[in-house]
Amino acid sequence: NEPITFNWTEDRVKAIHAGLVKVRERADEIRPLRFKAERDTDGETIESYNPANHSELLGRTVKANADIAKNAVEYAHNSFRNYWSKTDVHMRARILMRAAGLMRSKYRDELNAYLILEAGKSWTEADADTAEAIDFCEFYAREAIKLQGDRQPLTDLPGEDNNQYFIPLGVISVIPPWNFPLAIMAGMTVAALVTGNTVVLKPASVTPLVAARFVEILEEAGLPAGVLQFIPGGGSDVGNAIVEHPLTRMVAFTGSKEVGLGIAEKCGKLAQGQIWIKRTILEMGGKDAMLIDEGSDYEDAANAIVAAAFGFQGQKCSACSRAIFVGDSYDKIVPLIVEKASKI
Q1: Do 100 and 217 lie in a common domain?
Q2: Whole-model pTM?
Q3: Are residues 123 and 223 part of one domain?
Q4: Parallel, antiparallel, or unpaired: how do β-strands 53-62 and 152-153 relate?
Q5: Catalytic residue among 294, 317, 320, 339
Q6: Is 267 among the residues known to form the active site?
Q7: Could you say which of 29, 143, 216, 283 is catalytic?
Q8: Containing domain of residue 133, as a range?
Q9: Tens-digit pLDDT profile for residues 255-313
């Protein structure tokens, strides 16, 4: 995996500060939609503010609506049918590998700065988010080549020759969360693209600048216009439009249980003109627990509980929200947890 920065050297500190300057230098820019094969800067915009300083405007992103979303799905469907699904997997994988290389060597600290300023992440948490996005690009590139290779044999029965082939599905609607606005957004997007699908991406409404910068990097890496439709907007109009559209083949969503169950319900219904049942990948909220028995290393367990409970202020589905103690472990570990938590 891509190493995460925990010890910030003088050079890395300077690089982060340079990244923060770069982000702030673009505060007057309007990030366009990627709608059809064009960049659209017309219309209403979403304003992104620093959550630690609500008076600091970081930039604006053009806001899509339901009509734009519907047209984006239709254009993505045509791009899938006429071009992208027919491309060679090695070509698609090279785009992801180039994107990973750009993030690692050229844009890492700038991406970290976007995560710090727009999502409110600490330096190390931002770097972990960026590192995971790099890992996703490289992992999915390699896995796609493996899966799209020779046929996958299955158990044969007398008189039968059974094989499994992997084929692209079509238009994938990607709806990522705000708390991992680079890693999860990038992972869902590139996994769909490298396997020959086209993508309609609706980023989280409070972190569209992070997603816009990643889209720019994909384009620099060689992603053709029209394959990825980038349409920031609200969940009630843009989100519903890309979920309910009959040409949407699958929905990848990370977010709340309430919204996820609503997507599952919508995708279970056939719309007029729809010829398949939509697939879904729904990652929703968790209620994670840690179990500590009497044979545990209490110091290590206390460190793990505090890190898991309070990392990114607990604003993630992997946060530890319950600690279950066996026997006398409670009396021995709780003072350690209190001591460590009080130093945050």
Answers
A1: yes
A2: 0.93
A3: yes
A4: unpaired
A5: 317
A6: no
A7: 283
A8: 10-148+167-283
A9: 999 999 999 999 999 988 898 999 999 999 877 899 998 888 999 999 999 999 998 88
